[in-house]
Specification:
Elements (H helix, E strand, L loop, with lengths): L6 H22 L10 H24 L8 H17 L4 H16 L3 H14 L3 H17 L3 H7 L8 H15 L2 H18 L4 H11 L1
Helix pairs in contact: 1-2, 2-3, 3-4, 4-5, 5-6, 6-7, 6-8, 8-9, 9-10
Length: 213
């Protein structure tokens, strides 16, 4: 899953993920077998739990259209996200819900609340793709709060699909910090990844050009 450039793209990506994986995920979410439950009872319980989680997640998707959310949309996102995080905290559903709730809190101007949601996703140590996305978004959010050192500490380099996003975010934070040499190095490494991957990132090129002046 490539990094989404806008919040609208994040919403659409979540909906596409649900269409592709939602039905099968209903049948595969499971926890350790309860000692007092028979195998059939256990299976029935897990399917029921997963079906309930899927309903909450579908409601969350329905209440989160791309673009600016209404007050009613926001209330529904908070409600359904809260249910998923409380009742199905270990599921992928809950992690996506927290990402969506972070988006809502940013829209509402509560950056601390948004950071709390993203930090929760990271703490779950769940899906690697979601973990990486949440880490980059949290770093950017902390940067917007001028917590530059804290943000930079999150962006540990790794050779994976998210390396480009981390390097560019790191460059942005270093520019804000005034460390232009280090920022140039981060942008240069990111630019090399753009070339080798065949991606298109004109904004990154402009950032690097500005530091060359």
């Amino acid at each position: 899953m490539a990094e989404m450039k806008t919040e609208e793209e994040q919403v659409e990506a979540l909906k596409r993920w649900w269409q592709a994986n939602g039905k099968s995920l209903v049948l595969t979410i499971a926890v350790s077998i309860g000692g007092v439950l028979s195998w059939n009872a256990y299976q029935d319980n897990q399917v029921n739990q997963a079906e309930t989680a899927s309903v909450y997640f579908q409601q969350l998707m329905n209440s989160a259209p791309a673009g600016q959310l209404s007050e009613s949309d926001i209330a529904q996102v908070r409600h359904n996200s809260g249910l998923l995080k409380t009742e199905f905290s270990s599921s992928t559903y809950a992690q996506f819900a927290a990402l969506m709730l972070a988006r809502v809190e940013v829209q509402e101007g509560d950056l601390d609340a948004a950071a709390t949601q993203l930090a929760w996703v990271i703490e779950q140590q769940g899906d690697a793709e979601i973990h990486a996305l949440a880490t980059i978004r949290l770093a950017k959010l902390l940067g917007a709060q001028n917590k530059l050192d804290e943000a930079l500490a999150l962006l540990v380099d790794a050779d994976d699909a998210w390396q480009l996003g981390r390097l560019e975010a790191r460059g942005d934070l270093l520019v804000a910090k005034g460390d232009l040499d280090a920022a140039r190095d981060a942008y240069t490494k990111a630019s090399l990844l753009v070339v080798t991957s065949g991606a298109n990132n004109l904004l990154l090129g402009l950032k690097l050009d500005n530091l060359a002046q």
